Amino acid sequence: MTSVTMTVNGKSVSGDVEGRTLLVQFLRDDLKLTGTHVGCDTSQCGACQVHVDGKAVKACTMLAAEADGADVKTIEGMANADGSLSVIQQAFQDHHGLQCGFCTPGMVMTAAALLKENPKPTEAEVRHYLEGNICRCTGYHNIVKAILAASGQEVTQIAAE
Amino acid sequence: MPKDSGIGASPKRREDVRFLTGKGQYTDDINIHGQAYAHFLRSEVAHGTINGIDTSAAASMPGVVQILTAKDFEGVGGVPCGWQVTDRHGEAMQEPKHPVLAEGKVRHVGDPIAMVIADTLEQARDAAEAIDVDITELEPVMDMKAAIKDGATKVHDDLISNLCYDWGFVEENREAVDEAIKSAAHVTTLELVNNRLVANPMEPRVAVGDYAPGTDDYTLYTTSQNPHVIRLLMGAFVLGIPEHKLRVVAPDVGGGFGAKIYHYAEEAACTFAAKQCGRPVKWTSSRSEAFISDAHGRDHVTKIELALDADHKFTAIRTDTYANMGAYLSTFAPSIPTWLHGTLMAGNYTTPLIYVNVKAVFTNTTPVDAYRGAGRPEATFQLERVIDKAARELGVDPADLRRKNFIKPDQFPYATPVAVEYDTGDYDATLDKGMEMIDAAGFEARAAESKAKGKLRGLGIAHFIEACGIAPSNLVGQLGARAGLYESATVRVNATGSISVMTGSHSHGQGHETSYPQVVAEMLGIDESMIDIVHGDTSKTPMGMGTYGSRSIAVGGSAMVRATEKIINKAKKIAAHLLEASEADIELKDGAFSVAGTDKSVAWGDVTLAAYVPHNYPLEDIEPGLEETAFYDPSNFTYPAGAYICEVEVDPETGKVDVLKFVAADDFGNVINPMIVYGQVHGGVAQGIGQALLENCAYDENGQLLSGSYMDYTMPRADDLPMFDVDHSCVTPCTHNPLGVKGCGEAGAIGTPPAIVNGVIDALHRAGHTHVSHIDMPLTPARVWAAMNG
After folding, report:
1. Fold identical between B31-138+202-255+260-293 and B486-632?
2. Taking a C-beta distance cutoff of 8 angstroms, is the pair B685, B752 a contact?
3. Neighbours of A32 (CB within 10 A)
4. Dihedral (CA of A95, A97, A101, A104) sign
5. What is the C-alpha to C-alpha distance for residues B487 and B226, in angstroms, rounded to an integer?
6. Could you tell me if B230 and B269 are in contact, meaning their C-beta atoms sit under 8 angstroms apart?
7. Which residues of chain B does A35 touch, with a Cβ-Cβ cutoff of 8 Å?
8. pLDDT tens digits along B679-698
9. B508 vs A contacts (CB less than 8 Å)
10. What is the pLDDT of residue B1?
11. What pLDDT shows up at residue A157?
């Protein structure tokens, strides 16, 4: 077992992990931050997307030990300080960008990373950036709209289309 | 002006807040104190005899609690099948035993052989690797047509053959159909494959079994679309636990699409093992396991013949289908290629004679059952493809050929020759709407633009009908269902006027927590925020059959309306007493009861309080309290229909197909929440495009799954899809349920595949590749290029 210490959503946490323990297992099983989901075992689906030192990372592609000393942000840390939904989260609700909700945390984390890199993406850029996140419910239509809306761009209201 | 509340409004979904903040409670998020972890050792070969299983080394490994194999399940029932199909000779289908863990033989890659339970998941996995299974491999049965030839290797030694059933429908029409095809002016024939798919809800399956020795109560937490069905099947047929000692909870469920309808062996194994080892037992499927253990969908091989007269009216349809059942019969598997497929073969058309033959076949593959649409996509695909081919052969416009044969609005109710009666529809309206949305008039100009870029543009048209709102219990009972298919609701009005609605249907993405309160709020004239929906727990909800077959609002919503009507009736009696008026004079409007023609009224909250604090109350006439339950059994299916039209562009250099425009013009009857309905169609269309262009569940000749991960099975990604233009403004309300609703969940997956394939064939023909009459799905670049250059 190895001791790890990291900052998760602004709080310092530590724990003992096996060498093979993945970051996503440490988040879910040890820290009980179950908002980060596991949808595959080949690093394809993106349901476990988190931010590590400000960069989007699939938490199944990183060992917990590798995250020792890192600054990790998960979906539980994405709301505003007063608990209200952040701009991206609110856009997902406004534009019905989620159905079953399972891929949603990863989608929100990816969207946040995209808008940090590219504050006004085109529709094609949004679709390309989402290539590593699979959603089976929405057909991506409303996810793309939500992200464009979160970037401050005009999109049609959901009920009008 | 769009409404901002009630029926027809699109309030934001209340469930979204927890999902967007990581506070959803999915089954894998549930951890019970002291739980152990299960890992299933699964067969790596498709077919083999188990000579022995040596668990001795594994049993002594660190953390191992218990290892179970088939011998530990002696006296436990097999995983049951919920539907018995009768074949064309009046004989019952062949029904093999489906043991919880493989007994004597393994029959598909992924068949569970041993269950290892340990303190941690890693320990369970490590121990599973130390189990020595001695298997003699047998020839795998993979090809359906070869499988039912004399002398073929059998999947189940105790069955007569690999033929589950040979079903004919309508058997009495067989000769008349043959005769009509013989004497037809034109017959179009098409052979096709409806490709095998994996449903792939993003949340893999999970089961957590728990047992309380002090009370002899069992609890199963599971990723299910229908927890009451699981309780019934597992309790009564597998483990012998009476319902009152078994609670099944399906909390937040991350998508289903059919794959989470069925009772699976892992659910029974975890529940059984929890008592055996005295600890809660949790199993979480990996995605790799999901590919080999979740029931698959589709997998039909079909020949369809369409006969037309000289005036291009359809005179007969004959189809021959081989339907893959896989190695065992999943819960509803036998009903999919039969009653959910043959009964839809009339489509939107007036074809007077139809005969459907289906041979269901056992193979050494994962079981096949319903996947979004279930039988109806298979029917629609062959019908809409053969009509397109006929139009091409006859040199007529494919839209016009459909219009010529549509059932017309004045023909409803319309009894088809395949045993169903459509209540309403206006197919000309939906097709016209779709053609307008795609701007069919501007197509030629856009095709010329594509051509200038060296691309081939095609216009693909399909029209579909489906039977939803499953189903009238007495009818499905005659057809072999071993269950009723009603739905239930309990409306519990609390003393201060807030309401809990307990529904037997289940939401796993459909947004019931938002849309159901819209209905109750509209009926009572109170605010939606006063109403909560409770679902997914057999200890809290009345017996209900769950969510699949686009049935929730049509059947579950109707039960909720009936229960709410009972509430209103009783509340009016209480109000009449409080107002010292006649019950007949009481009106409910905007959340208040008033005496007609007067200014006397009493508020909703005063009536509900009186029901629970009955100091001034007609106790001699009615009981205190305000809680009502209704069970709703539909008198017919509902029949959504619509036009699915697309423009595709083929790159002749590579064969790659891009979907440039996609429109859907649906008639769903009345719509409760348009936002949610749009979203349902978007998702269905994406899955339909997935089937048509990307997805394929492929096995090699040894029965090894070639497409067993997201590296190999091509899930649609955001950059594979366009924005969709969807509409449901054509409305012919359902005539037999109280809300006039039809259901929308499966439409996209049904109407889309033939539209895409028709579009690609159209593009190729316009470019002179007239030898290409069909390409089997998925239309990968390699397949399209080969067809063009073949």
Report:
1. no
2. yes
3. 10
4. negative
5. 11
6. no
7. 21-24
8. 999 999 999 999 999 999 99
9. 100
10. 58
11. 62
Q: Which residues contact A75 (CB under 8 A, 6 or more apart)?
A: A35, A36, A50, A104, A105, A108, A109, B20, B21, B22
Q: Which CATH class is domain B296-471+636-789?
A: alpha beta
A134 → chain B, closest CA residue = B717
Which segments of B54-147 does DSSP mark as H helices, in order? 56-59, 121-129, 144-147
Q: Do the interacting molecules here have an ipTM over 0.95?
A: yes
Both tokens assigned to B620: 């001699």
Task: Determine the average pLDDT of the residues in B501-513.
Answer: 97
In angstroms, the separation between the Cα of residue A90 and the nearest Cα of chain B is 9
Question: Which pLDDT tens digit goes with each residue over B241-273?
Answer: 999 999 999 999 999 999 999 999 999 999 999
Q: What pLDDT, on a 0 to 100 scale, did the predictor assign at position A156?
A: 78
> CA of A101 to nearest chain B CA: how many angstroms apart?
5
A159: nearest CA partner in chain B = B675
Model pLDDT for residues B177-212, shown as the tens digit of each residue: 999 999 999 999 999 999 999 999 999 999 999 999
Q: What percent of chain B has pLDDT over 70?
A: 100
Closest chain A residue to the Cα of B748, Cα to Cα: A139
Pick the CATH number of B486-632 from 3.90.1150.10, 3.30.365.10, 2.30.30.100, 2.60.120.380: 3.30.365.10
Phi–psi pair at B487, nearest 5 degrees: -140, 165
Q: How far is it, in rounded angstroms, from Cα B512 to Cα B508?
A: 9
Q: Contact B723/A44, CB-based, under 8 Å?
A: no
> pLDDT of B544-583, one tens digit each?
999 999 999 999 999 999 999 999 999 999 999 999 999 9
What would the CATH number be for the domain defined by B31-138+202-255+260-293? 3.90.1170.50
In this structure, what token pair is assigned to residue B771? 């030898």
Residue pair B296/B289 in contact (Cβ under 8 Å)? The answer is: no
pLDDT tens readout for residues B580-601: 999 999 999 999 999 999 999 9
Give the nearest partner residue to A98 out of B16, B711, B716, using CB atoms: B16
Cβ-in-10-Å burial (0-12, 13-18, 19+) of B616 comes to exposed
Residue B4 banded pLDDT, cuts 50, 70, 90: confident
* Closest CA–CA distance from residue A153 to any residue of chain B (Å): 16
Q: Which residue has the tokens 């081989």?
A: B322
Taking the C-alpha atoms of residue A153 and residue A156, their distance in angstroms, rounded to an integer, is: 10
Assigned superfamily of A2-77? Beta-grasp domain (3.10.20.30)
Residue B443 neighbours by CB distance under 10 Å? 17
> What is the phi/psi pair of residue B517, to 5°?
-60, -25
Torsion of Cα atoms, A49 then A52 then A54 then A57, to 10° = -30
Which residue in A37, A41, A127 is closest to B288 by CB distance?
Answer: A41
Residues lower than pLDDT 50 in chain A? 159-161
B221 interface with A at CB cutoff 8 Å: no
Largest CA distance in chain B: 86
| Cβ of residue B569 closer than 8 Å to a chain A Cβ | no
Strand pairing partners for B301? Answer: B193, B322
- Measured distance CA(B684)–CA(B676) in Å, rounded: 12
CATH number for the domain running over A87-160: 1.10.150.120
- Which residue does chain A place closest to B727, by CA atoms? A161
The answer to whether the peptide bond before residue B413 is cis (omega within 30 degrees of 0) is yes
Question: Does any CB of chain A come closer than 8 Å to the CB of residue B8?
Answer: no
Kindly tell me the burial class for residue B329, based on how many C-beta atoms sit within 10 Å of its own C-beta (0-12, 13-18, 19 or more): buried
Find residues 242-261 of chain B whose CB sits inside 8 Å of chain A.
252-255, 257
In chain A, the residue whose alpha carbon lies closest to the alpha carbon of B512 is A99
